[in-house]
Write a structure and sequence with these properties.
single chain; 10 helices; elongated; disordered N terminus
């Protein structure tokens, strides 16, 4: 069980427990984490874990609330900011995505996940030229980043550049089948 474990092992326990879990199992993990949080002065690690449980339940509002609580306790939490950017993506709150991705990038300029989330936020905000620049740079520095390649191909579609989108998707398909 998760009792008495160090934050890293508790985080691993949480990830294992919520992976493919049904609603009843997720509720049991949530209860366990809340019990632990009641006995701990520093709740930010548990807050991150609870946010993962809420995300697994599909409850974006509680996920967001828990992550915001983590930031109130530990404003420098990169993990919470990246997760909030993901929540913004699901809610189509592109301004929030950009705020959180930019905050992460200010602390860690090379963070791939933040760079990708920033580009997606720019796309969603209709700032396609900036998004293309960000994605092209990410793909240049990380040629194996399939997520960036997919987003770039999708941006080609949004811009109605269909032949470039087709070529980009074909390249992704070829790379995935070559690796397999």
């Amino acid at each position: 069980q998760g009792d008495g474990k160090a934050p890293d092992s508790l985080a691993r326990w949480t990830k294992i427990e919520i992976q493919g879990a049904d609603a009843q199992k997720l509720s049991a993990v949530e209860t366990k984490l809340k019990e632990l949080a009641a006995r701990r002065p520093n709740k930010s690690d548990l807050g991150l874990m609870l946010s993962e449980v809420y995300a697994a339940k599909g409850d974006l509002a509680r996920t967001q609330t828990e992550l915001e609580n983590v930031l109130r306790e530990r404003n420098s939490s990169i993990q919470a900011r990246l997760a909030l950017a993901q929540v913004g993506r699901h809610k189509r709150d592109y301004a929030s995505m950009l705020i959180h991705a930019d905050t992460v990038l200010a602390a860690m300029p090379g963070n791939s996940q933040a760079r990708l989330l920033r580009a997606v936020g720019l796309m969603g905000a209709g700032r396609h030229t900036e998004a293309a620049t960000e994605l092209d740079e990410l793909i240049r520095t990380e040629p194996g980043n399939i997520d960036a390649q997919v987003e770039r191909a999708l941006l080609f579609l949004v811009e109605q550049r269909f032949s470039e989108a087709a070529a980009a998707f074909q390249k992704i398909y070829a790379a995935k089948h070559k690796a397999a």
